[in-house]
Each structure stands twice: as C-alpha cells, then as structure tokens.
Amino acid sequence: TPTPLTLLGLGAMGTALAGAWLAAGHPLTVWNRTAARAEGLAARGAAVAATAAEAVAANRLVVVCLLDDASVPAALDGVDLTGKDLVNLVTSTPAQARARAAWAEERGARYLDGGIMAVPPMIGVPATGAYVFYSGSSELFEEHGATLAVPAGTRYVGADAGYAALHDVALLSGMYGMFAGIAHAFALVRGEDVAPSELAPLLGGWLAAMSGSVARTAEQLESGDYTQGVVSNLAMQVAGRQTLLSTAEEQGVSAELLEPYFRLMERRLEIGGGEEDLTGVVDLLRR
Ligand code: NDP
Q1: Span 89-118, average pLDDT
Q2: All domains of the chain, ordered by start, with CATH?
Q3: What distance, in Å, lies between the first and last C-alpha atoms of the chain?
Q4: Is the terminal CB of the chain with fewer CB neighbours within 10 Å at N or C?
Q5: Which residues pair with 132 in a beta bridge?
Q6: What sections of the chain are H helices per DSSP?
Q7: 40 Cβ partners below 8 Å, 6+ apart?
C-alpha cells in the first residue's frame, strides 16, 4: 500500500508534487502558510492540516518544499521532529544543506536533502526525464526511495547532505553559461535578415553537437592530460577569439558575456597551455 506522507509548502512546485502523490494513491497531508492554496488539493483528497505542527505529527515522512532555506526554520522551529524522516527539497547551497541536516538531526530527525532538476509541469510526467538529486541519510533514502520516485526520478549522490545542492548548482551553472552564449548569438543576428526562428534550429543543433566537450573535459580532468583527444588546441582558439570579438564590434553587440571566458583562455595560454584543450580554465577558476 502507498506510504502516507506530509508535504509542507504548496507553491508552484509543492502543488505539482502533491498532485503526483495523490494521483498515485498516497495518503497525503498538506500544510501551507496561506491556507487557501490547499483548497484544490483538498478537493482531490489531501488532508489539510491547520498548522505545520499538526501536518508533521500526521506522518513519519515529511517533505518540505518552501521558498528558501530561511523559510524552513520559519515554518518548523518549535515543531517536534523527533523520529521524523525529513526530506528538504528547498533549493539551497551545499553549506546551507549541511547546516540544515545538523539542525534536523539535533531535533531527532533523519535528514535527506534534495535538488529538483525539473520545472513544475515536468513533475509526475516520467517521459520528461525529470529527476531529483538526493543526499544525506542513505537509510532514509532506501526506506522511502519508492515514494520519493513517484513525482520524479531519484538520484542519490552521497551521504554528505550538501552533495545534492552541489550537483544541482553545478548543472544550473553550466546551463547559465549556455544561456549566455545563446543570448550573444541571437544578439549578433538581431536586425539582420536572419529570423530568430531560422537561427534557432542551427544554434540548437550546434550546441547539441558541442555537448560532447562535457565528457572530453571529464576525461582530461581525470587523466590530468589536457592534450588528450584535443580537437582544437588553445593557441588556435585564442587566436580565433579575435574573429568573435571583431564580429561583435561590427554588429554593435557587447562582448561582455564572452570576454571573461576569453580572458581565462588567454591566461592559460600565457602559462604554457597552447597545445591543450580548454580544460585548463577549470584550474584557473579554483581559488
Ligand atoms: P513558490 O514561490 O511558488 O512557493 C513558495 C512556497 O514557500 C509557498 O508555499 C510559500 O507559502 C512558502 N513560504 C515562503 N516563505 C515562507 C515562510 N517564511 N514560512 C512558510 N512558508 C513560506 O515557489 P516554488 O514552489 O516554485 O519553489 C519551492 C522550492 O522548489 C524552492 O526552493 C525552489 O527553488 C524549488 N524549485 C522550484 C522550481 C520551479 O521551477 N518552480 C524548480 C526547481 C526547484 P505562501 O503560499 O504562504 O506564500
């Protein structure tokens, strides 16, 4: 029989999670600071608790999906967490997650931190590939893994409670670098006789083809040999960057998104990385 659980937080993400558990037949108790947001879920069979304390008391498994780390103690300070299995899906930093794990353990709970790699419409739709990184108590994850797998896939990445956040933020950071490149590419053709919708499939296809660099970078970092399998060496790429900068200038486009990366490439070249791939930039970023 489906495990009963409690969910605190019925924002966009919490509501999507609640819907998935209800659809799968899990008895669900919900609480939200603004009570009106629970009405739709009550109509679908959720039990609505009047207070966070009441919601926590209802079940051993308690999932938290509030705005940010500060909202967790705001909702739960003073609530008895003894013997609870607390799963915190709030997006946080690794240090915040570790501190929150210690906070929960001091209060007698087992703790699992989660980082959601999905937007709300992907929740409960396995075909989207949505998943959640989890880290912290492996016992909790083993015991409740099947319940946690209802709204999205699960990936346990270690006993260090900060590792879910670390993985989450690593992926999001990579994504923003890609967004920066996309913005620059569209800016270059803006005002020209090239429709954004013409460029889009070409740019999307090119980025997909270039995503192979992720695996090559990993291999080079692990071997320590940044020339391994190099396709376009750094010396050539540093020379070639001028074409990109000059084209931006010609098109009246600011190169501010590209320049910081090019500066790191130049620094690596200066210290002798000319025959390497771009992997040496990773080392320059570590403080
Ligand atoms: P929303 O802004 O839609 O909802 C925020 C929720 O937090 C509401 O339930 C709100 O209650 C509650 N809340 C805020 N402050 C407090 C407080 N001090 N005390 C009690 N409750 C509080 O956010 P989402 O649902 O979109 O996001 C929730 C978490 O999920 C965030 O950490 C977010 O980073 C993460 N996430 C969201 C994604 C998304 O695309 N939406 C994607 C991946 C992760 P009230 O209704 O009373 O305001």
Answers
A1: 98
A2: 5-159 (3.40.50.720), 167-285 (1.10.1040.10)
A3: 51
A4: C
A5: 116, 154
A6: 12-23, 39-43, 52-58, 71-76, 94-106, 138-148, 163-189, 196-210, 212-223, 234-251, 259-270, 280-285
A7: 15
Q: Which of 48, 56, 64, 66 to mutate to test the pocket of ligand 1 (most atoms within 8 A of CB)?
A: 66
- pLDDT at residue 264, as a whole number: 98
Mean of per-residue pLDDT scores for the chain: 97
Q: Is 58 helix (H, G, I), strand (E, B) or coil?
A: helix
Both tokens of 177, joined, read 């670098």
Does the C-beta of 33 come closer than 6 Å to ligand 1? yes
> What is this structure's pTM?
0.95
What are the φ/ψ torsions at residue 65 (nearest 5 degrees)? -135, 70
ipTM of this predicted complex?
0.99
92/283 Cα distance (integer angstroms): 25
Q: In this structure, is the dihedral angle defined by the CA atoms of residues 179, 180, 183 and 188, taken in order, positive or negative?
A: negative
